[in-house]
Structure formats: C-alpha cells, structure tokens
C-alpha cells in the first residue's frame, strides 16, 4: 500500500519525510529550522503549528510542555552544516584582532555566501543564512520580536531576512567592524517598528509594498482607499514613531545610537518628495543606504521555506531592480553597483577586468615616467 501524501500550505510530503523534534530542542532555537507539525490521529491529517523561519516564542514551547507534550513532528528545511559554517565564519570575523585577519575573514565569508546566494545554480535554502546570522547578531529582547511577530508573522520574518541580508551587503561594500554590522542588523530589523502593534492592518501592509516598489504609491493607495485619518496618520508617521519607540525600548541592542536615527527618515527621498518630514536626502553614507537598499529589494510576502529553493536568492532580488522604475529617486544606486562588483570579485569573475585595469594603470604610470624623464 502506498503511503499517503499530505499537502499543507504548498508543501507536499509523506509521513516518512517527517522527523521528530523534542520541545527541549525546539526551546533552544531562536528561529525554527523546519515546519513543526502535529499529526492528528483522529483525522490522520497534519496541522502546521510553526513554520520554518518563524521566531520560536518561548511561551509557545512552555504552553505545550505544561500540557505534557514531549515532541512534535518536523519537516526539516534548514541545513545544519551550512548554519554551523556561517556561524563560525561570522565569529571568525568578530574575533579577528588584526585588520588583515578581518579582511581575510570577510573574504572567506563573502565567498561562501556568494557561492550559495549569488551563484544561481546553487542548491540551498535561504533559512540557513538567516538562522546563522540571527544567532550571531541578535541582541533584542524576546518580547520585542514576539511583538513584531504577533502583529504580523510576515513582518517579523521579512525583518529577519532583511537584517541578515543587510549585514552581508554592508560587509560586501567594505564594512568589517562587528559592532557596525550588528547595528546595521538591528536597525534593518526594526525599520518598520513604527507599524507594530495596534493600527496595523492588511491595507497598511499593502501600502508598504507599494511604497517599496514605487515611492509615493503607498501614500496614494491609502488615499484612494479612503482610509480614516487615524489610519493614514499611522502609516504616514511610522518612521518617526518607530524611531521614538526603538530609542525608548531597544536602546541596549545598539553599540552606537547614530544608525538608529535612520529609522526616522527611511521613507525620505532625494528630492524632498518622501515622508513624513519631506527632507532632501543627498547626504547619506553608503552604510546608511544599505538598510534602504534591502528594504527596496525584499518583497512584502509570506515565504513558505522549502528545501534547496533559494539558490542565488540575493542575486534574484538585485536583478529585479532592473525592472524597477524609480531607482534614481532613491539613494541606492551606488550600493547596488558596488555590491554587484564585489560579489563578482569574490566569485573570481572580475579577474580579467582587474588585470586589464592594472595594465592600463601600468601604461599610465609608464607614460608619466616617460614624461618626467623627457621633462628632466
Ligand atoms: Fe516603512
């Protein structure tokens, strides 16, 4: 007799594909490495209790432990070997004492990352990198993350994805200091903290995605939807209210408070057409642009993680920029171009260009030498 295949949220699996995770093991995780499933004996059907990539709420684990539950089934998604490798590479960067050691660690990590998430034919799940980066950098209290998650699981998971990707992009464009990378991780996760809590709605999340793809469209969308003034103000002011909330409640997660300010102007634009302060933002450093760049490329969508489904993920996000029409109204072009160059470089794809540039520089130097000699 063939075994029954279950379909659940787009996942297709047999019972033999499921492993066991004890509640003690689950309680030690911050991010769930697979889909946690309860098999209803009565109906012989699976119930999805926690998705891969979800934040493991300690209250969830406690609730089931108190009920006497020892374990659940798990459809494993993340690859522990990759998680361990990424964690050890981040730690190597963190403890590097000399600048030369830090750059060697930076190159090693970027190369490992680029082979998986830039090289499109790779076979990997994005979750490996998110879990490792979250494990190494996260300094937020559980209650902050639970609050984001309870507002919207998608908002929480997107925050984790963005935070991890922002950290590696900052590294790629030349920032190797662990504390700076940590601040980038946290400011990116908390970019939309102003939307968390009462006031968040489906319309607001739609406005966010429209604003992301085309600055100004989120505001127009809410006006056309004729939302109440309260709802409109909630969205319009979320950069400033978010910054105030983060300053008040997440102060301790930051090494330096400077980057935190970015939250208050993450929807401003070059030409003063952004919101809520209508500032003219030309003067951002590349580091400050990184979270804005990531916010631009990561969609507002629910992700059901599947094994080996994320090869070249960051490259796919970046390539989608080409079709975006408003890149020049945002200060992200420099980071975008630099990232493409650095990733190609670690993958050895720009060797030819380098040699050619070097040759051109040498020719230039030789010419200058000659002019010097002739002058003398
Ligand atoms: Fe926002």
Question: Structural class per helix/strand content?
Answer: alpha+beta
Give me the CATH architecture of the largest domain, please: Orthogonal Bundle
The mean pLDDT is 87
Distance between the termini: 94 Å
Helical run tally = 16
**Looking at the structure, what is the overall shape?**
globular
Can you describe what's shown?
The chain is an alpha+beta fold and 376 residues long. The protein has 2 domains: 5-76, no CATH class; 80-327, Orthogonal Bundle (Hypothetical protein af1432). The chain is 53% helix and 8% strand. The chain is built from 16 helices and 6 strands. The protein has a 4-stranded antiparallel sheet with strand order 3-6-4-5. A two-stranded antiparallel ribbon has the order 1-2. The longest helix has 25 residues, at 351-375. The model has no long low-confidence stretch (mean pLDDT 87). Bound molecules: fe (ii) ion (FE2). Residues 192, 208, 238, 266-267 line the site of fe (ii) ion. Fe (ii) ion is lined by residues 192, 208, 238, 266-267.
Keyphrases for this structure?
alpha+beta, globular, 376 residues, four-stranded antiparallel sheet, single chain, 16 helices, binds fe (ii) ion, Hypothetical protein af1432, two-stranded antiparallel ribbon
Topology:
Blueprint: E1 5-8, E2 11-14, E3 19-22, H1 23-27, E4 34-40, E5 45-50, H2 58-66, E6 71-76, H3 80-95, H4 99-117, H5 126-137, H6 142-151, H7 153-172, H8 178-189, H9 202-213, H10 217-224, H11 229-236, H12 238-249, H13 286-297, H14 313-319, H15 333-346, H16 351-375
Antiparallel strand pairs: 1-2, 3-6, 4-5, 4-6
Helix pairs in contact: 3-4, 3-5, 5-7, 6-7, 7-8, 7-13, 9-10
């Amino acid at each position: 007799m063939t075994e029954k295949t279950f379909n659940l949220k787009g996942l297709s699996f047999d019972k033999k594909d499921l492993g066991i995770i004890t509640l003690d093991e689950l309680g030690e995780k911050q991010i769930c490495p697979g889909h946690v499933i309860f098999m209803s004996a009565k109906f012989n059907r699976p119930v999805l209790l926690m998705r891969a990539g979800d934040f493991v709420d300690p209250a969830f684990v406690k609730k089931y432990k108190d009920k006497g539950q020892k374990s659940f089934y798990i459809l494993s998604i993340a690859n522990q070997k990759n998680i361990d490798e990424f964690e050890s590479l981040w730690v190597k960067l963190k403890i590097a004492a000399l600048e030369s050691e830090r750059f060697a660690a930076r190159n090693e990590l970027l190369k490992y990352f680029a082979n998986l998430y830039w090289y499109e034919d790779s076979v990997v799940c994005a979750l490996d990198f998110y879990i490792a980066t979250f494990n190494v950098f996260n300094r937020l209290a559980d209650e902050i993350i639970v609050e984001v998650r309870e507002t919207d699981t998608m908002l929480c998971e997107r925050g984790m994805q963005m935070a991890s990707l922002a950290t590696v992009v900052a590294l790629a464009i030349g920032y190797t200091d662990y504390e700076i990378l940590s601040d980038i991780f946290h400011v990116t996760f908390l970019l939309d903290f102003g939307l968390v809590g009462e006031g968040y709605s489906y319309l607001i999340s739609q406005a966010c995605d429209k604003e992301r793809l085309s600055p100004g469209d989120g505001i127009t969308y809410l006006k056309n939807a004729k939302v109440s003034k309260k709802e409109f103000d909630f969205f319009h002011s979320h950069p400033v209210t978010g910054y105030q909330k983060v300053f008040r409640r997440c102060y301790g997660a930051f090494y330096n408070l400077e980057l935190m300010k970015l939250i208050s102007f993450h929807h401003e634009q070059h030409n003063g057409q952004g919101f809520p302060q209508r500032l003219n933002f030309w003067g951002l450093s590349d580091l400050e642009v990184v979270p804005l760049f990531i916010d631009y490329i990561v969609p507002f969508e629910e992700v059901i993680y599947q094994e080996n489904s994320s090869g070249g993920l960051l490259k796919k996000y970046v390539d989608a920029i080409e079709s975006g029409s408003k890149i020049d109204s945002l200060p992200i072009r420099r980071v975008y171009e630099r990232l493409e160059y650095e990733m190609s470089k670690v993958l050895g794809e720009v060797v030819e260009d380098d040699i050619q540039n070097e040759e051109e520089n040498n020719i230039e130097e030789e010419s200058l030498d000659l002019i010097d000699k002739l002058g003398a």
